[in-house]
Design goal:
- Strands 1-2 form a two-stranded antiparallel ribbon.
- The chain has helices at about 15-20, 20-40, 45-60, 65-70, 75-90, 105-130, 130-140, 145-175, 185-215, 230-250; strands at about 95, 100.
- The chain contains 10 helices and 2 strands, in the order αααααββααααα.
- The chain folds into 2 domains: about 15-140 and about 225-250, no CATH class; about 145-215.
- With about 250 residues, the protein is mostly helical.
- The longest helix is centred in the middle third of the chain and has 30 residues, at about 145-175.
- Helix 2 (about 20-40) runs parallel beside helix 10, helix 3 packs antiparallel against helix 10 and helix 5 runs antiparallel to helix 6 (about 105-130).
- About 70% of the residues lie in helices and about 5% in strands.
Length: about 250
């Protein structure tokens, strides 16, 4: 199961976090996210402690804060949604910066921002310390349905190919004097999306035929068998276990 070149999210390193088996890190991140989601939104201090735990992991992994913050930009749509909640959610009103906002909406916005940011940060740390190929092997080790692993593998392998195809189509449009400047040009963009879908589908058929001609029967061979020792599992479980302790305190204090 190959993965081509390293993804831009991955940061090469030799830290203890980098050396952990991928399936250990996947379980740790999933456990951490589940704990964060289960934390009551009123426990503000708990989310601060979660952020400290992630900062500690980033320090051990030698992932710079700037590298992490730049990749958190992916959650901007969620931030925009959260900022609208105080104005659209019905309920008791209060004054904030001279504006009348909903109290339930404020709590909802905080809930989305805090838990979403922590979840995205944990995912970025996982991607920063684990190669894509290793992630696929980790999913396979965790007994994820083989078909889903294969789909993920092809998505990662051909994502850049499809992006390149779209870039060439965009260059072809611009070379013919086309620039999308308004609603009138949406039809052209829709046709571009349709053409890209057809080309991707045809490429998928050609790849499948090539695989079948080389003996593909529905499963891909496992090149490397990823294993983990008890010590590695113990290191990986430190993050979700500590987070669980914070969560339990959040429900009791």
């Amino acid at each position: 199961m190959g993965a081509g070149h390293a993804h831009t999210l991955y940061r090469h390193g030799h830290s203890p976090v980098h050396r952990l088996p991928p399936h250990c890190k996947l379980v740790a991140v999933l456990g951490f996210v589940l704990v964060v989601v289960s934390t009551p939104r009123e426990a503000l201090w708990a989310f601060a402690l979660y952020a400290v735990l992630l900062a500690a992991v980033a320090a051990v992994a030698r992932v710079p804060a700037g590298f992490l913050l730049k990749r958190l930009v992916i959650e901007v749509p969620f931030v925009a949604f959260a900022l609208l909640m105080p104005f659209v959610v019905p309920g008791e009103q209060t004054e904030l910066l001279g504006l009348s906002v909903s109290v339930p909406g404020l709590w909802g916005a905080w809930n989305v921002l805090a838990k979403g940011t922590l979840g995205v940060a944990a995912s970025v740390l996982l991607a920063s310390t684990t190669e894509l190929r290793s992630l696929l092997l980790g999913l396979q080790r965790l007994r994820l349905p083989p078909l889903l692993v294969q789909i993920a593998s092809f998505m990662l392998r051909y994502g850049d190919v499809i992006t390149d195809e779209l870039r060439r189509m965009s260059i072809a449009r611009r070379s013919r004097g086309f620039e999308a400047r308004g609603v009138r040009h949406w039809g052209v963009l829709a046709k571009t999306a349709g053409a890209l879908f057809i080309r991707s589908y045809e490429r998928g058929e050609r790849v499948h035929l090539a695989m079948v001609s080389r003996g593909y029967t529905g499963t891909l061979p496992v090149i490397d068998e990823v294993t983990a020792s008890r010590t590695q599992w113990a290191y990986a479980s430190a993050l979700p276990v500590l987070a669980l302790g914070v969560c339990l305190l959040g429900w009791t204090v």
